[in-house]
Amino acid sequence: MPSIKEVAQLANVSPATVSLVLNGKGNISPETRQRVMDVVHKLGYTRNVRARNLRDQQSRVIGYARANTRPEYNPILEQFTYYLVREIEKQDRHLLLFTSPDDSDVAPYADMIDGQHVDGFVLSYTVKNDVRFKFLHEANVPFVAFGRSLSPMDELVHWVDVDGRAGMFDATNHLIQKGHERIAIIAWDEESASGQEREEGYLLALQQAGITPRPDFTNRKLNGVENGYLGASQLMSLPNPPTAIVCVSDMIAAGVLRWSVMNHIQLGVVGFDDHPISQFTHPSLSSVRQPVERVAIRIAQLLAKQLDGEDVDGVCELIPPELVVRESSV
Amino acid sequence: MPSIKEVAQLANVSPATVSLVLNGKGNISPETRQRVMDVVHKLGYTRNVRARNLRDQQSRVIGYARANTRPEYNPILEQFTYYLVREIEKQDRHLLLFTSPDDSDVAPYADMIDGQHVDGFVLSYTVKNDVRFKFLHEANVPFVAFGRSLSPMDELVHWVDVDGRAGMFDATNHLIQKGHERIAIIAWDEESASGQEREEGYLLALQQAGITPRPDFTNRKLNGVENGYLGASQLMSLPNPPTAIVCVSDMIAAGVLRWSVMNHIQLGVVGFDDHPISQFTHPSLSSVRQPVERVAIRIAQLLAKQLDGEDVDGVCELIPPELVVRESSV
DNA sequence: TTGTACGCGTTATCAG
DNA sequence: CTGATAACGCGTACAA
To answer: Which of B249, B162, B240, B168 is nearest to B201 (CA)?
Structure first.
């Protein structure tokens, strides 16, 4: 692996000159420039990124944690990660994956900072009062979150989120338009920031249609197909049961669908995420599609701004999702 | 961020001494050692990993590419990535994600090597005669592949794979035991190494049962639920159509299931991967479960061996998968 | 254009 | 036997 010194020797110039040529800086005569470039090509020289980063006191690496508390898999985050990497590479940065035993554990983040492995972070799976927001903000480490903490910290930090309230409002409203009046929801536990948003959209749509929400129509479950099945069976054994169910995720919705097919009871169902399999469940599942690519791109851009020192505090963006209507809600 | 120099000054020793203490090397008196450690703790000093890596000529980072030619998502690889990161962290290494326009494009790999971002690679989505094998082997860069190339290169490099032949043999044999005689397969294109293995298992099981394979019973599709649907409709319009279909992936199998439900035709179906949704399709899907965690752990270990210089050439491992029987094949 | 110092930790060499 | 000095890895910025 040739170094800048070898190039300098062969080109009869100083290492400094080579550096300037490589970076298009300084006043270098065309001949010298040419001579240097020739040697660079002949040797197949490529700059040692690590040396440069050491000097610049940066790593040009972004950290992104995968929590292991959620073995259920998440196609949204998988896509998100892909788009994120792609956008970050445009900035000549890279994405480093690390694990976190728990989303509310800041220790792995501290380790990454102390080891100076990363210049900043992307967070996902945010929860209410997410401790990472406070920790990273106080540590003065750049980061952008996919999702909010629904706390005052949201004013101070950078986040991009899908407007779950609008999405669930649309979903619920769509069912109302189809004639449903008894609409239930299967939501996550109250700790989930995104879950809470989606619930609010549901309630809002009911209110606007003059329907009084029934407390027993809110069923809380962890994510998962089996939990959707369970939730549906619980909701449908209520007196005066719902005729339609909105779900905070397609996994849950798939379980609801499964229950309705098994029990031969027609049910309006709308999910959330537009999971790849939604178009092929039976019946196919109406869902709220998250604009994952847009989110990833914006996050990468906001992070780059911070990293490049253009910081303005508290930039945030809410991106509206899109309702995709299929057989489960016609 | 305190440096080793500051620690040295406060402890009244030289930076070298601090380094020796930190690494438990050299002959340092207990008092000096204690004095240094006290200052280290007082300052909250952590070693600058980048400086160390520059000196050691390594990055302690493993590269892993995500190809963007396959927007369909893959829960197996998502899990795989997670387990991989976890195991690699035990080695004080990290996983760097990068994108590749195409699995058979080595340019992104070359870039990562030239930039000295990584010490080695993990490959997945291997294809027949995978060009990356040859390239990385010749470049003398350590790597371990999840999957083979079904070429002579397989003898020279390191790979770990799930025994798709055994898995598909079991799946097919299971259907034969259930009384099926006309069993078709929906496979991938012939470029896919893992796809070919699985086909062989299918053929093997038929042969062993004395069933002559029908060429028109092999249907090739790209992965995806919609393609499974299409494949099923094509196979089922053949004269003397199959009574059962094995599929190289659960995505494809889900499409087959969908077709069979829509057309009210009972069909034995077995998929491959044990996708999380398989237990909740209607009917639930029998599938071949990949031991992803074991694969990831072995890959990380084999890579570590190479990186630590214990190289032995051509270590490879075939790990048997497990058939999970559900409603679609009873 | 170039010499030189610097970023930071490690290790071989050398002095006490 | 203990610990300091200096060179090294490599690229970049500033003064000359």
So the answer is: B168
Q: Which residues of B touch A276 (CB under 8 A)?
A: 72-73, 225, 251
Q: Which of A314, A311, A317 is nearest to A299 (CA)?
A: A317
- Nearest nucleotide to A54 by CA–C1' distance? C7
Are residues A101 and A87 both part of a single domain? yes
Residues B38 and B128 in one domain: no
Residues of chain B where predicted confidence (pLDDT) is lower than 50 = none
Task: Tell me: do A154 and A168 sit in the same domain.
Answer: no
Amino acid at B223: N
**Cβ B50–A1 below 8 Å, yes or no?**
no
CA angle A147, A144, A166 (to 5 degrees): 30
Give the range of the structural domain holding residue B156, as residue numbers without chain letter: 56-161+293-317
The answer on A202 and A271 residing in a single domain is yes
> How long is the CA B14 to C1' D4 vector, in angstroms?
6
Which CATH number does the domain housing residue A150 bear?
3.40.50.2300
Residues B260 and B283 in one domain: yes
Domain check: are A171 and A282 in the same one?
yes
Residues by CB within 7 Å of nucleic chain D, which ones?
A 1, 3-5, 15-16, 18-19, 22-23, 25, 45, 47-48, 51-52, 54-56; B 12-17, 26-29, 31-33, 51, 54-55, 57
SS3 content of chain A, % helix, strand, coil (to 5): 45, 20, 35
Q: Does residue A189 share a domain with residue A102? A: no
Same domain, A91 and A78: yes
The total domain count for chain A is: 3
The predicted-structure confidence for B218-251, as pLDDT tens digits, reads as follows 999 998 888 999 999 999 999 999 999 999 999 8
Task: Read off the tokens for B26.
Answer: 């050299």
Write down the number of H helices and E strands in chain A: 12, 12
- Domain termination residue (choose one: A47, A64, A81): A47
Distance in angstroms: CA B36, C1' C5: 28
- pLDDT tens digits, one per residue of B159-178: 999 999 999 999 999 999 99
Query: Are B82 and A98 within 8 A, CB to CB?
Result: no
